[in-house]
């Protein structure tokens, strides 16, 4: 129905900038709209440095606070995935307390490389008790080395840790075990030979999963359950690695396959080790985001037809731990919001944004860094732990979805390549909307920063409907700025990750509409 409403694109030369005029047509009551959790934007952690994220002898309070902000806003137990590439380079040794890592030398393009060999010990997994109470955890074990004993010992240590009194007291649970990371790439990275295919993968996965499920009686427990897939790419059909291919190979018909509850897919928008303003604009582009995400629709349909959940278990802007001057910028925050909210419309229930210490695309840098994330150069003084621009996207999405426990989100249709929007409902009633302007306003631009005027029209206004709205803005100086953002005048760029500053919002009649600047997000909260 919405797409049939013609949008008006009216370019008006007004003073020194141009105003496009758009109409937002927002149903007052949720029509068919996707249900959404405030944990839509969640994290995935590279496990080589897990002990730095968590803290060893005491919790890492910066990381704790950054997560706790989200828990408080969303009112729901958080989700976190831990493992990733390092999970296939990890073994267990009962004589080690936390972990021992072997790192390759860093380079200009990879200032913070992943460890090539990780050995974890008896207190490693239990550090999960340092995260906010009630966190729902999904942890990976090693399939890459085809060492069943390693996967068995890791699973045993995981179950022991999650049954320990400090973790149980927190209400923190191990929801999923993931067996192998991006196994579709094993024949490219030397973990398997050229005969590797979905049928052989399914055979090995069943072998490992059977051992783990039988050894620890996963059939008789509420959790953990198992993750399926976790592939880097998809063939979108049975012709290569995809959910369809492994289902066709019988994974769900196996005994441990009956424990799969969620299929995980990984996705990056591309791989660029160098950045530019053009690359940033391309990342943010509404059309790129839609093409990128919608291609997974056939996989999602198949997965959901088996009653399974579908998530992006590992995602972020660009591989190479991010493109410098792109992945670490405010423009990436705009991308994160539109990408994640659009994903909710295509049947993706959650996105785990991948993080590692010093990666360019992090939402959070949880410890001080002594070399540049951009080029590895030594810093005169270390930068303390801090949040990066994308952290604001997690805050904004969580706030917009809200803590009702019964939220829906609906994409608004704008006939404009730079404007996207979403309406948020609680118990079926319209509460908020986000309008996103994805035109990259770059540092050094000499033309004025344009503004789009958006009129708000309610569908079903015979029911009455709100007459006033509160406007809250994500203030960004430039799309390529790496700091200095404010959300409603407040900053999260503080030494403890807690919000600071005085909340600044504007209340206007709904009939006034709202001006949205290039590279900006506004949240409208409707007041009945
Ligand atoms: C990884 O490190 C452990 C402990 O130092 C060592 O025993 C093992 O051989 C190493 N594995 C590989 C594959 O290098
Ligand atoms: C699982 O594998 C481990 C390590 O090889 C072995 O000790 C254990 O007995 C196996 N468990 C079952 C149920 O087969
Ligand atoms: C497999 O892992 C076990 C447990 O850590 C270790 O003792 C063994 O050496 C590993 N096997 C190989 C071939 O690396
Ligand atoms: C690849 O490895 C498998 C399992 O070890 C083996 O059966 C197969 O013969 C190998 N194929 C090639 C082409 O080397
Ligand atoms: C603002 O809009 C005008 C008209 O569409 C365009 O010519 C100009 O380049 C835009 N300014 C920027 C900074 O994009
Ligand atoms: C962001 O805030 C600054 C300081 O209040 C203000 O000067 C600027 O106009 C704001 N930018 C936008 C795009 O609203
Ligand atoms: C804009 O670019 C100039 C020159 O490179 C730089 O000094 C300034 O800090 C940049 N401003 C922001 C907000 O990033």
UniProtKB/TrEMBL annotation:
Residues 421-523 form the Beta-glucuronidase C-terminal domain. Keywords: Hydrolase, Signal. Residues 1-20 form the signal peptide. It holds the Pfam family Glyco_hydro_79C. InterPro entries: GH, GH79_Enzymes, GlcAase_C. SUPFAM superfamilies: (Trans)glycosidases. This is Glycoside hydrolase family 79 protein.
């Amino acid at each position: 129905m919405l797409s049939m409403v013609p949008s008006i694109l009216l370019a008006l030369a007004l003073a020194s900038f141009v105003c496009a005029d758009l109409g937002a047509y927002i149903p007052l009551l949720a029509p068919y709209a996707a249900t959404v959790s405030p944990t839509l934007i969640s994290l995935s952690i590279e496990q080589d440095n897990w002990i730095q994220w968590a803290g060893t002898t005491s919790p890492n309070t910066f990381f704790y606070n950054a997560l706790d902000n989200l828990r408080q806003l969303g009112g729901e137990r958080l989700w976190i995935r831990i493992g990733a590439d390092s999970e296939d380079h990890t073994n267990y040794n009962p004589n080690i307390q936390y972990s021992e890592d072997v790192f390759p030398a860093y380079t200009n393009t990879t200032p913070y490389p992943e460890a090539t060999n990780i050995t974890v010990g008896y207190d490693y997994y239990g550090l999960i008790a340092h995260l906010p109470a009630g966190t729902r955890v999904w942890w990976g074990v090693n399939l890459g080395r085809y060492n069943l004993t390693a996967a068995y010992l890791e699973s045993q240590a995981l179950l022991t840790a999650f049954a320990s009194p400090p973790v149980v007291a927190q209400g923190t649970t191990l929801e999923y075990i993931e067996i192998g990371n991006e196994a579709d790439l094993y024949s490219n990275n030397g973990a398997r030979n050229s005969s590797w295919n979905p049928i052989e993968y399914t055979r090995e996965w069943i072998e490992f999963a059977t051992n783990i499920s039988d050894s620890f009686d996963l059939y008789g427990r509420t959790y953990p359950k198992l993750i399926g897939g976790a592939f880097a790419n998809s063939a979108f059909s049975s012709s290569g690695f995809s959910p369809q291919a492994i289902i066709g190979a019988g994974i769900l018909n196996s005994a441990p396959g009956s424990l799969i509850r969620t299929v995980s897919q990984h996705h990056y928008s591309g791989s660029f080790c160098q950045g530019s303003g053009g690359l940033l604009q391309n990342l943010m582009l509404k059309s790129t985001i839609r093409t990128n995400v919608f291609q997974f629709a056939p996989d999602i349909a198949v997965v959901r037809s088996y009653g399974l959940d579908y998530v992006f278990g590992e995602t972020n802007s660009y591989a190479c731990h991010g493109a410098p001057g792109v992945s670490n910028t405010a423009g990436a925050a705009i991308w994160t919001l539109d990408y994640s909210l659009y994903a909710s419309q295509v049947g993706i229930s959650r996105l785990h944004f991948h993080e590692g210490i010093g990666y360019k695309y992090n939402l959070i840098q949880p410890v001080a860094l002594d070399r540049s994330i951009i080029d590895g150069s030594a810093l005169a003084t270390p930068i303390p732990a801090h949040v990066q621009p994308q952290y604001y996207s997690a805050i904004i999405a969580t706030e917009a979805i809200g803590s009702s426990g019964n939220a829906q989100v609906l994409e608004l249709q704008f006939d404009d390549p730079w404007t996207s929007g979403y309406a948020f409902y609680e118990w079926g009633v319209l509460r908020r909307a986000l309008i996103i302007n994805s035109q990259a306003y770059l540092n050094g631009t000499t033309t004025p920063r344009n503004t789009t005027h958006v009129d708000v029209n309610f569908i079903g206004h015979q029911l009455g409907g709100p007459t006033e709205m509160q406007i809250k803005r994500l203030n960004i100086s430039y799309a390529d700025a790496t700091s200095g953002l404010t959300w409603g005048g407040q900053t999260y760029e503080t030494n403890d990750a807690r919000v600071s500053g005085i909340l600044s919002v504007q209340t206007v009649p709904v009939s006034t509409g709202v001006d949205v600047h290039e590279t900006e997000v506004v949240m409208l909260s409707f007041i009945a």
